[in-house]
Design a protein that fits this description.
Largest interface: A-B, 40 and 46 residues
Low-confidence stretches of chain A: none
Structural class of chain A: alpha+beta
Mean pLDDT of chain B: 90
Largest sheet of chain B: 9 strands, mixed
Number of strands of chain A: 8
Shape of chain A: elongated
Mean pLDDT of chain A: 83
Number of helices of chain B: 9
Structural class of chain B: alpha+beta
Helix content of chain B: 25-40%
Oligomer: heterodimer
Number of strands of chain B: 19
Distance between the termini of chain B: 62 Å
Radius of gyration of chain B: 23 Å
Order of helices and strands of chain A: HEEEEEHEEE
CATH architecture of the largest domain in chain A: Sandwich
Largest sheet of chain A: 4 strands, antiparallel
Order of helices and strands of chain B: HEEHHEHHHEEHEEEEEEEEEEHHEEEE
CATH class of the largest domain in chain A: Mainly Beta
Helix content of chain A: 10-25%
Strand content of chain B: 25-35%
Strand content of chain A: 35-45%
Distance between the termini of chain A: 66 Å
Low-confidence stretches of chain B: 8-24
Chain lengths: ~120, ~350
Amino acid sequence: MSRGVKAIMAALVLILAGSAAFLLLRPKSEGHVARISLDGQVVEEIDLSRVETPYTLTIDGPGGFSNTITVEKGRICVSKAGCPDQICVHQGYISDGTTPIVCLPNKLIIEIIGGGSGLDAATG
Amino acid sequence: MKQRLTALILLCTLLTGCAATDKGEQPLTATVLAMDTVMNFTFYGDGMGEEQLRQALSGAEDTLRQLDAALTAQGAEGEAAALNAADGGWTAVPQSGALLQQTLELAELTGGALDPTAYAAVKAWGFADGNYTVPNREELDALKAAIDYTRVEVSQDGAQARLAPGQQLDFGATAKGYAGDLLRRQLEQGGITSALLDLGQSSIAAVGSKPDGSPWRIGIQDPAADSGVYLGVLELSGRSMGTSGSYQRYFDRDSVRYCHIIDPATASPARSGLAGVTVVADSCLLCDGLSTALFVMGLEEGVRFWRENSALEFDVIFVTDAGEIFVTSGLKDSFTLADGETREVQVLE
């Protein structure tokens, strides 16, 4: 085998190893970011995988009342709300991107982006 | 030697090619607040330019907002609101005439288990504005007397309609399904071959399959569990589905749970022993309306209706209050229980 061919082979093996490493080691898509928006405007993004101590935050919306949001490692919920129907509170925790939490009266949406549940949609 | 070299080069190309298509299949998604719910749209381009895809998406949003304004029973411009305000007078229904016709046909087909004239009862129980109340017996008798879809008249050309005096109508059980059918047609005409229209979880319309040819995977909420806990997964390709469940909207009063689905026969929340009904068919409107009607009918009558109406080509997942799961034979292969779910699925033939 000539030197030239060996060099080409070595280069190819390197490229192969490089692309394999890239494919196998590249970071998984963000995963667990909760995006909170009011009337279509993003007000807060929280990386749920980095939450160590659970905490709450309160958001005032255009409906004229507030939603209290509880944030824990890997999951998020609306724990208290001033809306008449309480649908957002009833929904409980979400931890994947299949179904967002929505408080229609306050135009609040909490969705988990980046990750995946293997589902494209869900009944609710 | 040469062969080995070729093989190596091929392998490298394949691997990099993989990474490229991975990126190219990102769908365009949008969240729209309409029809009193939140809708999620997923569009795949399948060779279409991103600009074209965005146009299709904004076209769909425009259609939806227009429909929402035209169909509502609550807004000032809504045709249902105008019908209700006319106290029995003829009213123009340019945008909702077709929906009204189809809803009345479904009402007849289901023997009134679906009845669009139950809106006064929906309001009296507080499901329109969230101020929940339990009406007394006299109020219920009056509400019951006003519910009767056979008294709704539509003009020959379908452009005008009128209710009986005192009747109140809304399209709550069919508007989203109607919108789903309309949007799907609009997208298909625009050349979209792969999209999922989630019109607020109770109504889902699929355009084709995913770009790789695999079906869309839809989680079926377990009525007895927290939101987001699925009892199974339904695979959907080019068809629609609709779900009605007592767990979706309800209130508790004196330790009784009252769900948002009104039984037209009693003018009260339905109590049929079912906790959730999912209907799968081509038409999203059929799924939407039938899921409500079958929920009102209950398991036994619902199964009989399914057997007697095979010409409608629909299938059903029934979940009872006790947690039993019944699936009609057409879904035998497309419905699978969630991991760790040990319940038995009873297949209806």
